[in-house]
Write a structure and sequence with these properties.
10-stranded antiparallel sheet; 8-stranded antiparallel sheet
Amino acid sequence: MPASFQSLWENRPLRNLAVLALATVIAVIAAAIAVVTDRSSVEARFAPHPLFAGLDTQLDQVDRIVYTSSKGMGGVSRVVMLRNPDGVWGAEERGGYPVDPDLVKKALLGLGDMEAYEPRTANPDWHRNLGLLPPEDIGSAVRVEFFRGDERMAGLLVGKVPERAVDVQGEGLIYVRRDGEDQSWLARGRLPLLKTVAEWLDPAFVDIPREDLARVTLWGGTDNPVVIERASKDESDFSIVNIPAGRVTRGAPVVNGVATAFIGKSFDDVAPADTLDLPENAPTVFFDTFDGMRLTMSMGGQGGALWAKFVAQVDPELAAEGADADAAAARAARLNARLGAWVYKLPQDIGGQFTQTMDLLTREAGPADL
């Protein structure tokens, strides 16, 4: 044995330290091998896979989508969407009113493509922690179901979004479990999880562009209308044209706000037209376009809300010189097809704009106005 090793071996403290260091190195190597082996075995045992195998190839056969969520002690809330023979999706609770096609597409593709990314608990006692208690048990999970006729093609309980909300590829992550199974998963994918019917409705509404709007008449057909108009498309501001003597408007922003109140806005809710009887003297608003179309909105109250019904027609006398009568007819037909069979619950701010009187929109003229 070399002298240096002999000296080390005879020095008991140094010898013990060397033995301890060697044992530590061996333990670290063994732990590293164990971790790599365990990781390899886990990766070999589980690979991400579709939650519903083959569903992505059958999405065109889905004709009913049901979302169920809890209302606490009030039971459950269901949103049922049906596909009609023309392929248009509608809300069953709203007489078949069209739902947003983009949202339906996201729901179909979202469930069809959703993958089980990592396994989680199969213990029902732990489902609450992942938000996976069913809505019937006052749980926070949303149940999403696809049907083909009476056959349920898929049923999924969707729970909480984890702190790590996306994977390394930027895909969304969420806790889920297949309805009727205890095994839960960290799933990869995205789904709209809207819980009320109104959130699903197609938001398309009165889409008259500002540049086409010539005139808005509040309290149309009465002895005290408020006529707000502009003479041509070149004028940016609307004006009240029948202001009583001695009064002036409260400013262009106020007048423009009334005339353009529908621009970019939608509605709060909808119902079939025959569910609301409007009084004969219902407040009426006329919307006239430069091409000669008039949209008439009649309003009435129900349950403390303001609801509106619409009828569009063409009146050549309203058309500007050189207007396209065919465009006016096409616009009227489109609006009647979309709005005619329904009554709409107006947002509070819009209802307030269209029920203003001349006294509210004007004031007494002062010295500065002369």
